[in-house]
Specification:
elongated, six-stranded mixed β-sheet, alpha+beta
Length: 388
């Protein structure tokens, strides 16, 4: 046994300075939550954080260990502590650490943005070295025993209900006296660690996902089935896309070039006029109301004719070019002539460009002859004495 003990690697006792580190990890055991509508049981993860000096513990349930839940759990953790320690020590969870390495671990971009927002350092533990975060390992085991043990006979029907119960148990745990010190975690935190924590920023960090997108020929980028415009000069370029629940931002070479409200329904395309070329802006300004207003300047018959042209197409946009051609052809003509031609076009249902233009170009037709007197033409004029 003595020979075996000599072969064991030595351990280093770690001294934890107040306000220096918080250790974070997910518990290996999960909390069952029942869907009240279907009766389906879904298991929630348990996020645990332990401050180094005071052992003050924070815990909550999240549905997954994915990046959104991981980031938002940190935001609520900092809010629970009421301050920010100097370092956060996570495990090499993929949600937080993109690539584990001893010398230079690569953090997930969103996790790095969280750290920058709270001005906190991220110090991932060495891979497969649980002693690096023994504080949270002990905290996790204690949380499993203390929290899950007290909630084992309760049935939860929502994540919010489970978290309310966890918060009550965690507060009870933090208020219990520590065996060796004789004071509670909460008392130790208030007297020793809270004064050393950095102040929280004015606003909570808003979780954002980052991804790449290529600008198409229509100067739009596609994100989750919806299209968002960027300046047309970036056609063919790659942009960085930052996504939150409410907003989408596009960056090119570190500079923000577009910002949109996040789309979850409705029209697939979201286009801003300032992103369009001048010719496209002119075309985009076309609308049925604009054409009717233009036609109304000539008179009611012309307005009715333009409305009829648009209505005769399956989609109003298919009649825009016809309306533009007709209205441009009416320039320079008298309102009386335009109104007369429009009335005739409505009567004979001439709703094509060529049909309306031919009526506009035609000379004024003679009035129809009355039944008592035949119309005068070159064929029935008999001589100079006929009019007498």
């Amino acid at each position: 046994m003595r020979e075996f003990e000599r072969r064991l690697s030595p351990t280093m006792r770690q001294n934890h300075v107040a306000g220096d580190k918080v250790f974070v990890d997910y518990s290996g055991k999960k909390l069952p939550i029942v869907d009240p509508a279907t009766g389906e049981v879904r298991h929630a993860e348990i996020f645990v954080a332990v401050l180094g000096a005071s052992n003050l513990t924070y815990a909550e349930a999240t549905w997954t260990q994915t990046l959104p839940d991981w980031i938002e759990a940190h935001v609520r953790m900092f809010r629970f502590f009421g301050g920010v320690p100097r370092l956060v020590v996570p495990d090499n969870l993929k949600s937080g650490v993109h690539k584990a390495a001893f010398y230079d671990p690569e953090l997930n971009r969103s996790y790095g943005k969280l750290a920058a927002h709270y001005d906190v350092g991220i110090l991932p533990t060495r891979s497969r070295k649980p002693r690096d975060k023994s504080k949270v390992e002990v905290g996790v085991r204690f949380a499993q025993f203390y929290i899950l043990g007290r909630l084992r006979n309760r049935t939860f029907f929502s994540l919010a209900e489970a978290n309310a119960a966890i918060a009550g148990v965690v507060e009870r745990m933090n208020a219990a006296p520590l065996r060796r010190l004789g004071i509670s975690r909460r008392e130790l935190f208030e007297t020793v660690e809270r004064p050393t924590l950095a102040a929280l920023p004015a606003e909570d960090y808003v979780f954002a996902q980052w991804q790449f997108a290529r600008v198409g020929l229509d100067y739009h980028i596609e994100v989750e089935g919806f299209f968002y415009s960027v300046p047309f000069g970036l056609i063919g370029e790659q942009v960085d896309v930052r996504l939150t629940q409410r907003t989408l931002e596009a960056f090119h070479k570190g500079e923000r070039v577009a910002a949109h409200s996040r789309r979850y329904g409705g029209q697939a395309h979201g286009t801003k006029p300032e992103h369009m070329p001048a010719s496209h802006r002119h075309y985009a300004s076309w609308s049925p109301e604009r054409f009717r207003s233009w036609a109304a300047s000539f008179g009611p018959n012309t307005e009715m004719l333009i409305g009829a042209i648009l209505a005769s197409r399956r989609h109003p946009e298919q009649g825009y070019r016809t309306c533009i051609g007709v209205l441009r052809h009416m320039r320079g003509l008298s309102k009386e002539r335009v109104e007369a031609a429009s009335a005739k076009a409505l009567a004979i249902r001439a709703f094509s460009y060529k049909g309306v233009v031919s009526l506009l170009d035609a000379r004024a037709s003679p009035e129809p002859a009355s039944p008592e007197r035949p119309a005068i033409t070159h064929r029935n004029i008999r001589g100079p004495g006929y009019f007498h």
